[in-house]
Design a protein that fits this description.
Elements: E1 12-16, E2 30-32, E3 37-43, E4 47-51, E5 62-67, E6 71-77, H1 82-93, E7 96-102, E8 108-121, E9 129-143
Antiparallel strand pairs: 1-2, 1-7, 3-6, 4-5, 6-9, 7-8, 8-9
Protein name: Phage tail protein
Organism: Superficieibacter electus
Length: 147
């Protein structure tokens, strides 16, 4: 049996040109972040524990509560272009933008998010690096090949 995997080289990372909503996401114009970013990391929101323990419980009992919003971290090279400027504008204006992460297979995710934080750093022996932290609004939706 062969290994199953998804390559990351040639992954497309896109942001809407202007703020977006769920209704405008389908017709939005997207800008390409792919040539400035090196890594995208998704972290699903952790659900809160609701303690349901009672006097008759033999151990502590919990049920899942509301989940915290999921987060995305994007990092790579700092570069002033329309796509990265849209990320910084989203932070400055506290607005929600649409995003797509599309793997080489054509499958991936689309989601709405607000930029919570952006950083850049520079050292004497390298290029200026940039990191953006996003908080998702709702759950990411699957993108199927060709859609």
């Amino acid at each position: 049996m062969s290994s199953l995997y998804e390559k990351s080289q040639n992954t497309k990372i896109l942001i809407t040109e202007v703020p977006a909503t769920k209704d405008t996401l389908k017709t939005a114009k997207f800008l390409d972040l792919s040539c400035t970013l090196k890594e995208v990391q998704f972290t699903g929101g952790q659900k809160q524990d609701i303690d349901t323990t009672t006097f008759c419980s033999e151990e502590q009992e919990n049920t899942n509560g509301l989940p915290a919003p999921s987060e995305i971290s994007m990092s790579g090279n700092f570069y002033r272009n329309p796509a990265q400027d849209a990320l910084r504008t989203a932070y400055d204006n506290d607005t929600t933008y649409g995003f797509q992460v599309i793997f080489p297979s054509g499958k991936g995710y689309k989601f709405l998010a607000e930029v919570r934080q952006h950083t850049w750093s520079s050292g004497t022996n390298g290029v200026v690096a940039a990191t953006f932290s996003l908080r998702l609004k709702g759950k990411p939706e699957n993108i199927e090949s060709g859609s």
